[in-house]
Each structure stands twice: as structure tokens, then as C-alpha cells.
Amino acid sequence: MLAVTIRAYGGPEQLRFDEVPRPAPEGPGDVVVALRAAALNHLDLFVLRGLPGLTHTFPHVLGADGAGVVEAVGSAVRRVRPGDRVLINPGVSCAACEYCLRGEESLCPTYRLLGEHLPGTFAEAVRVPEVNVQPVPASVTWAEAAAFPLVFLTAWRMLVTRAAVRRGETVLIWGIGGGVALAALTIARRLGARVIVTSSRDAKLERARALGADLCINHAVADVPAEVRRATDRRGADVVVETAGEATWERSLKSLARGGRLVTCGATTGPRIEADVRRLFWRHQTIMGSTMGSARDFAQVTRLFGRGALRPVVDTIVPLREARRAFERMESGEQFGKLVLEIAA
Ligand SMILES: [Zn+2]
Q1: 79 C-alpha vs ligand 1 centroid, how far in Å?
Q2: Residue 202's CB: how many other CB atoms inside 10 A?
Q3: Which CATH number fits domain 152-289: 3.40.190.10, 3.40.250.10, 1.10.1040.10, 3.40.50.720?
Q4: Global model pTM greater than 0.85
Q5: CATH superfamily for domain 2-148+312-342
Q6: Cβ-based neighbours of 136, under 8 Å, separated by 6 or more
């Protein structure tokens, strides 16, 4: 089958459109999905550049997100059968450890991601465990189905499972235009929260306003904590959604209300952060880590997607063989929403 692979780490020039063996079910619980669309995440750029401590067998197939039609199933698979339309949860866990047994799959010590540790979705087919697929109705396009899983699972767990956002609370989201930030905006709006978003580009703020953001701040020119305080009667935001790390951390803490929760899933600008512990305890604030989500989180958020209650924003759709264009657009930071690769049947 054809796939987007790497044989060395580096920039988009390392991407190849290659012939690799087509997967078949290996264990009795395996499902092989004939992919119809896949979507990029920042993770794919990190894998392309090479991650410390992670080595691949080349050629390595990239891609975490995908959706398609079930092509083959192992003998023990009961929930889906060939021909079913499914989307894929990119996080694969062991199903046997303490965390997996209590339904906290993303805490599994051997948690692995498609395209990072396992062969990915930028291919004509991918093999995953049965628990990693969820049916999607025909009302959802392949592009939307592929754009949905990683960012909506991540944002759902951050806002619902971890920070437990309530109606009427204020949520601050940095860097609107990124996949997780846009998913967080969509989910926070649905939860009845008031949403403040930031970007360094006014055009992205305009588009976020059209999607329902209540206040849009250009973080390149404005004092974000001061703007947040002004907009909240000096209280600050109840929840801050962090994905950037070093560049925004101090301003995130300064924007946080008494009793507020800062929830982080990323460090795209660097991993080393500081906090004044006195501020934290005096203001009863909480810092929460979060990554991906459990099978239960995935089932919940996918159900809302199937009903049309949540929709990903798709920026661009290109054919699989033009993946390099999509990677270059992601590197440029110009995208608003997901970059999707279309895969011919
Ligand atoms: Zn486990």
C-alpha cells in the first residue's frame, strides 16, 4: 500500500510517498481500517524532526488521526465488522495494568500513539485494537471524522474530565487556530462557559469571534492578564487552557482567578516554567496535567460528534501524496483548524 513515511529525521523534505506492506489483523482483537482521510497534528512535526529517546524502524509511517472503513477484523472482534465507517482513537494502551483496568487508559505506563510509537494513519490502511475504533454516521464527512479524534479527545479531557468547567465560568484559551485550542473553544461554548481567546494574528481572532468567542485578545500587543481582569470584574479566568508552556506560563498564572484551574497539555514553546508557590496556595489555585484521554472520554466526545453537537474546523484538504504541502503549512503557523489528507478508496 502507499503511505507517507520517513527514513531519516528532519524537515518536510524528508517525507516520502512510499510503498509499504499492507497491515492485516495480528491478534484476535485487531481491526484493520482502510483509511479515507487522515489529519495532521503538531505531534507529526515533532516525530518528523526526531524526538529525544524515541527511535523508529525505518521506513516509519507518520500520522495519529484517521477515519475510514473497517477492512478486516480478528476472530474476537464483536463491536465492528467489515464495511463499518469508523474513526480512530490514536492512543493505544496495554488493557492489563492498574490504570487500564480502572478505565484510565491514557495513564497507562506503556501508552503509545499511532504515528509516534506505532505505524500511523498517513497510509491506505492501519491496524488498531478494537477498542480504538468508534462508529461514525454517514452524515459526517471523512475530512471531519479524521480531523476530530486527537484534538477533541484532548480538549474534552482537559475541560470536562480534568478542569470540570461549569456553566457561566470564564475559560481563557491561548493560541486560537491550533487544533486543541479550537476544540476547546467549541467544547467550552457547549458547556455554557464564557470564552476568551488569544492569537498573535487578528485574522484568526476574527474567525474565532465568528465561532462564538466572547473576547478576543491579540497576545502580541495586548497585556493578556490585564485584559482578562478587565473583562471579568477583576476576578480573572476560572480555567486557563495552556498548550504553549514557557512563552505564556507566567501570563497564564497571572490571568487565573482565585480557586482557578490551569490545565496544560503542551509545551510547544519550551518545557521549563516557574510558579510563585505563595500565589498558588494563597489563591487556592490548581495546576493540572492532561494528555489524550480515556476510552470513556473518547466514547463521550465521539457520541456528541455523531449527533452533530461538535464539529472540527478544517483548514485545508490535500491528497495524501501532497502531504508535504500540509506539513509546510503547519510549520508556517498560518492554518486555522485542521490540515486533512484525503486518501483515495
Ligand atoms: Zn495499561
Answers
A1: 21
A2: 12
A3: 3.40.50.720
A4: yes
A5: Medium-chain alcohol dehydrogenases, catalytic domain (3.90.180.10)
A6: 67, 85, 86, 87, 145, 302, 305, 306
N- to C-terminal Cα distance for the chain? Answer: 12
Spacing of C-alpha 235 from chain mean position: 30
Residues 328 and 163 sit within 8 Å (Cβ to Cβ) = no
Closest CA to 126 of 184, 82, 61, 42: 61
Gap from CA of 298 to ligand 1 centroid (Å): 16
pLDDT at 345: 86
What pLDDT was estimated at residue 50? 96
Residue 291 CA to ligand 1 centre (angstroms): 15
User: Could you identify the residue written with the cell 472520554?
Assistant: 297
CA of 294 to the centre of ligand 1 (A): 11
**Predicted pLDDT of residue 75:** 98
Low-confidence ranges of the chain (pLDDT < 70): none
CA 312 to the chain's CA centroid: 11
Length of the chain: 345
> Ligand 1 centroid to 96 CA: how many Å?
5
| Amino acid (one-letter) located at 216 | C
Helix (H, G, I), strand (E, B) or coil at 8: coil
In one-letter notation, the amino acid at residue 97 is C
Task: Name residues with Cβ closer than 5 Å to ligand 1, which is an ion.
Answer: 93-94, 97, 100, 108
